[in-house]
Amino acid sequence: MAVYTEIEDEELASFLADYDIGRLVAFRGIAEGVENSNFLLRTEKAGQASDFILTLYEKRVNPADLPWFLGLMRHLATEGLSCPLPVTGNDGEALRTLAGRPAAITTFLSGVWPRHVHAEHCGPLGKALAQLHVAGRSYTPQRPNSLGPTAWRPLLEEAAATSSGDNDSVPGMIGELSSALDRILPAWPGLKGEAGLPAGQIHADLFPDNVFFLDGQVSGLIDFYFACSDLLAYDIAICLNAWCFSDDGTFNVTCARRLIEGYESVRALSEAEREALPVLCAGAAMRFALTRLYDWINTPPGAMVTRKDPMAYVRRLRFHLAAPNAGAYGV
Ligand SMILES: Nc1ncnc2c1ncn2[C@@H]1O[C@H](COP(=O)(O)OP(=O)(O)OP(=O)(O)O)[C@@H](O)[C@H]1O
Ligand SMILES: N[C@@H](CCO)C(=O)O
């Protein structure tokens, strides 16, 4: 359950008094997610009910980055992408403070995220990802990826330093990730301009729980709080990891092919981007194995949040390191 911060009735009432969104008629915490505290707000104005999401930013989000995230969401929504639109208060600001945390209200999106991914989801997903990349071209502020390759070794060292040894599998995992980093980091492609790959604004966490579907089509993308300026094909690599492996760790090449076809229906990949897929996928698996491992070790006992298994991403990493070329991904 991801509600880290409780909100008192009086402070909520005074917070909402700064908006013109009507009278509060329902309010509840949302159990899903691990990063931030999310609440569903229903208001009524002139007899019309509207739903909103209230987010209190916790954990990994650097408050200094919030204007960039909210600006990106506003930009993408204005470009026609279905993503949450930040709602401004009476003073024109979307970013405020509630219960001692940075907070914002965004519009509610309809749809359901897929609990079980099928190949039919992957084409529309790929298309939506490419639409995000295209819509992001005209958002010029840059945010370097704080969880990119330069962060991986320090994250691993921090996990190793804080590991108490109460979980037998952790030391082996740390050793395996360290050896994998020795292979991935020297092979990492540069950004365009340094003879590298095309870069732009990427979502960087487009897992199934961040993609809503209605009638077989993508109805909305949420959770832009890892978004950053990085290699576009790295975003595809993140999706290949998050959408194209079954629960038992088997890679589903049909899902991968559909994802890439859907993507290319909007934006064609260059040959260099295709060739880089194995290392980009290995890097993406590394990033999620590392943050999961860190959380595994550092989540306090009794925290109302379900820890995610780092091993699932170590297994994916093994697959990518063994992939001879982009053909392994069906392209
Ligand atoms: N704009 C929105 N419209 C509808 N539902 C939303 C919206 N934003 C968030 N939600 C709901 O809140 C849940 C958690 O949101 P979100 O994924 O942003 O949280 P998080 O803690 O940042 O999660 P994550 O662990 O994926 O990083 C979603 O699964 C969804 O049910
Ligand atoms: N999507 C991430 C959690 C939120 O960043 C994971 O599954 O590890």
UniProtKB/TrEMBL annotation:
Top EC class of this enzyme: transferase
UniProt superkingdom: Bacteria
Pathway terms, separated by semicolons: Amino-acid biosynthesis; L-threonine biosynthesis; L-threonine from L-aspartate: step 4/5
Catalytic activity line of the entry: L-homoserine + ATP = O-phospho-L-homoserine + ADP + H(+)
SUPFAM superfamilies documented for this protein: Protein kinase-like (PK-like)
EC number: 2.7.1.39
GO molecular function, one term: homoserine kinase activity
InterPro entries named in the record: Aminoglycoside_PTrfase (IPR002575), Homoserine_kinase_II (IPR005280), Kinase-like_dom_sf (IPR011009), Pseudomonas-type_ThrB (IPR050249)
Limits of the Aminoglycoside phosphotransferase domain: 27-269
Keyword Amino-acid biosynthesis (UniProt): yes
Keyword terms of this UniProt record: Amino-acid biosynthesis, ATP-binding, Kinase, Nucleotide-binding, Threonine biosynthesis, Transferase
Pfam families the UniProt entry points to: APH (PF01636)
Membership in a protein family: Belongs to the pseudomonas-type ThrB family.
Record PANTHER family: AMINOGLYCOSIDE PHOSPHOTRANSFERASE DOMAIN-CONTAINING PROTEIN, AMINOGLYCOSIDE PHOSPHOTRANSFERASE DOMAIN-CONTAINING PROTEIN-RELATED
Annotated protein name in UniProt: Homoserine kinase
Protein source organism: Acetobacter conturbans
Gene expressing this chain: thrB
